[in-house]
Amino acid sequence: MKRILLIFFLGLILGALFILGGSKAITTTSTNDYCVSCHIHPMADASWKKSVHYQTPSGFHVSCVDCHLPPKGEGYLWAKGTTGIRDLWSMWTKDSASFDWEDRGRLEVAHGYVYESSCIKCHENLFPSELTKDGENAHLYYTQNDDAKDLHCINCHLNAGHYIEGYTHGSNKTFGSKSAAPKELFTQPAKVIEFTDFTERIPNSSVSFNMKAIPGGTFQMGSPDEEAYRKEDEGPVVDVELSPFFMAEIEVTWDEYLAFYAQTATSERTADIQEKSDDVDAISGATPPYGQPDQNWGLGQRPAITMSFHAAETYCKWLSLVTGKKYRLPTEAEWEYACRAESTGPYFFPGDPLKFERKGIKARFLKNDTTTINTYTIYKENSLSKTQLPDKVKPNAFGLKNMAGNVAEFCSDWYAPDAYSMLTNGVKDPQGPESGTDHVVRGGSFLDMAGAVRSACRDYTKNVQWLRTDPQMPKSIWWYSDCFNVGFRVVCEFDENTGKN
Question: For the chain, what are the domain ranges?
Answer without folding.
Answer: 27-155, 198-500
